[in-house]
Amino acid sequence: MPIIQESGYRKRPWYYFNRHFETIVPSIFNKIEGIRYHRERLELSDGDFLDLDWIKNKNQRLMIIGHGLEGSTDRHYIKRPAKYFSERGWDILAWNSRGCGGEMNRLARSYHHGETGDLAAVVDHALGSNQYDSIVLLGISMGGCQAVKYFGEYETNERLLGAFTVSVSCLLKDTSDAAESNLGGFYSRVFLKKIKENIELKAKKHPELQSVDLDAIKTFDALHEQTTLKLYDFDSIDEFYESSSCRNYLKDIDKPVFILNALNDPLLGPGCFPYTQIEDHPYVYLETPKYGGHVGFTIPGQEYSYIELSAEKFFDKIIFQQAPSQTSAKRS
User: Fold this and answer.
1) Rounded CA gap, 77 and 81, in Å?
2) Burial of 214 (0-12, 13-18, 19+ CB in 10 A)
3) Which of 57, 93, 113, 148 qualifies as a FRET site for 211, CA 20 to 30 Å off?
4) What distances in angstroms separate CA 294 from CA 20, 51, 135, 262, 291, one per listed residue?
5) Given a cut of 70, is residue 133 above it in pLDDT?
6) How far apart are CA 1 and CA 90, in angstroms?
7) Burial of 133 (0-12, 13-18, 19+ CB in 10 A)
8) Taking the CA atoms of the chain, what radius of gyration do you get in angstroms?
9) Do 91 and 64 meet the contact criterion of CB atoms below 8 Å apart?
10) Residue 330's pLDDT is what?
């Protein structure tokens, strides 16, 4: 499907001097009021759980929203679309990855960019309720990577119509490298600090984490070598990156999926802009505006961002104007 040649996002606020301001300022200062979630705990087959935050207004359309690395449903970039779409005829299911809902999860493992099993459990739970005629995914950052990978990996129900994704780490190794190099490694230090704090807490209950040398974890590669490979049974760091990069699953997507990635995103490297992979793709859309930062896309003087406006346009003009696609032989 088309690579969007002329983005609708053309003007960032004048006081966002560069891509780091576009990324960091909204993350710190944007506050979304007027959101009241109803929480449900979803028990998983492996003995762990997920905390789901609902906004239910008895609508027939449901939007499932996934957050970014070390995020939660309380982040502004989740509450903002939740508010926007709940006021426009949607029910909302914003879900917290394991350990991100305010209470530590039960198992040693938690989540990563390529872990789509928990997203599949959330989707199946929503479908099983039989309350909704139409379901879509909205994935932000890591949540976007998971959503894209999910549509390329799973056989999807006819009521699950597609996804809109933002700031997507299409090639995960490039994202790791960008986080460690841009702004003097500021981004990687912020994420790794939070992750190591969680590992330290979990090690008190899980012997398999007690041998982790937290002081030695200064890069994402070191983090994955000490934890991810062992907890998720990857043989090598290369296998992890290959398996977890949603770019490798684009060819198998058979429902409309939109990727919105800013060219100046400080957390996306060259491989996160999959022009070649989708050039002749019948279902995947790619928009790469010059500005936007990482999960920014702020519109001057507006409560909502280009993310909500672009997602609404995609859902209304593309997804709800296309008949359900036939599914391919993917993992069930």
Assistant:
1) 7
2) middle
3) 113
4) 8, 25, 26, 7, 9
5) yes
6) 26
7) exposed
8) 19
9) no
10) 54
Is residue 329 predicted with pLDDT exceeding 70?
no
At residue 44, what is the residue type?
L
Reported as a pLDDT band with limits 50, 70 and 90, residue 29 is: confident
pLDDT in tens, 204-229: 999 999 999 999 999 999 999 999 99
Res. 328: pLDDT tops 80 = no
3-state secondary structure 144-194: HHHHHHHHHHECCCCCEEEEEEECCCCCHHHHHHHHHHHHHHHHHHHHHHH
Secondary structure of residue 313 in the 3-state scheme: helix
pLDDT exceeds 50 at position 325:
no
Rounded Cα–Cα distance for residues 272 and 247 (Å): 8
- Residue 280 DSSP code: T
CA 75 to CA 87: how far, in whole Å? Answer: 18
Global confidence as pTM: 0.95
H or E element that contains 94: strand 91-96
**How confident is the prediction for the chain on average, in pLDDT?**
94
Packed helices 237-244 and 172-181: angle between N→C axes, nearest 10 degrees:
110
pLDDT of residue 15: 86
Contact between 18 and 294 (Cβ < 8 Å): no
CB-side neighbour CA atoms (13 Å) of 49: 13
Q: Number of C-alpha atoms within 13 angstroms, CB side, residue 228?
A: 23
In the chain the domains, ranked by start, together with CATH numbers, are 3-169+246-321 (3.40.50.1820)
Q: Does the pLDDT value for residue 5 go beyond 90? A: no
Task: Calculate mean pLDDT across residues 10-16.
Answer: 87
Length of the chain: 332
Task: Enter the tokens of residue 64.
Answer: 């499932």
